[in-house]
Write a structure and sequence with these properties.
The chain is built from eight helices and two strands. By secondary structure, the protein is mainly alpha-helical. The chain has a two-stranded antiparallel ribbon. The radius of gyration is 17 Å and the shape is globular.
Length: 177
């Protein structure tokens, strides 16, 4: 499986983006996992593309902490039943920032980008699998679970951006095109 292409960010924001992502990548590598790291990059890229980018103002370490916090909130990182799991105070200590500062920046990010708990765009795969709202589609006036559709219809829904991945291809690479 090839590495994902680096996200596109404006040249003016790229150095700041790279600094923030180096912090989130290292943190996720040491304390969370690769999936969290990828979601942090995705969120940082979305913030970098916002005009004007809020990343250009403020401490990069605090932006990184806010990004990890926001992704952690979406995925219930503080819930002891989740794996990986970190309490919010532990998260702040490990990131070397004040808990209130980290939480404020994380909430600002979530409000700015209108990200909610279990947001499909920033959810881990296991969270997506548990969230029935992710899979509900309206077909001919009826709500259906996309996981129950024929594989070719799942591919069509995925290509249209209606579902996050093709369940019929869950053990293989997603279809291309």
């Amino acid at each position: 499986m090839s590495a994902p292409a680096p996200p596109k960010v404006p040249a003016a924001v790229k150095p700041v983006f790279d600094d923030i992502v180096s912090i989130t990548d290292l943190f996720c590598q040491q304390h969370l996992d690769e999936e969290y790291a990828g979601l942090c990059v995705k969120l940082a890229a979305k913030l970098a593309r916002k005009r004007p980018s809020p990343l250009l103002r403020g401490d990069r370490r605090i932006w990184a902490a806010g990004i990890v916090y926001a992704i952690g909130r979406v995925n219930f990182l503080a819930d002891p039943s989740q794996k990986p799991h970190l309490r919010t105070d532990e998260l702040a200590d490990l990131l070397g920032v004040k808990q209130t500062t980290m939480a404020s920046k994380g909430r600002l990010i979530m409000d700015t980008l209108r990200i909610g708990l279990m947001d499909p765009e920033f959810s881990r795969r296991d969270m997506l699998d548990k969230n029935p709202m992710t899979w509900l589609l309206e077909v001919n006036g009826f709500l259906v679970d996309a996981r129950q559709l024929l594989p070719e219809l799942q591919v069509q829904a995925w290509r249209q951006g209606l579902i996050p991945y093709v369940p019929a291809h869950a053990q293989t690479d997603p279809p291309t095109g």
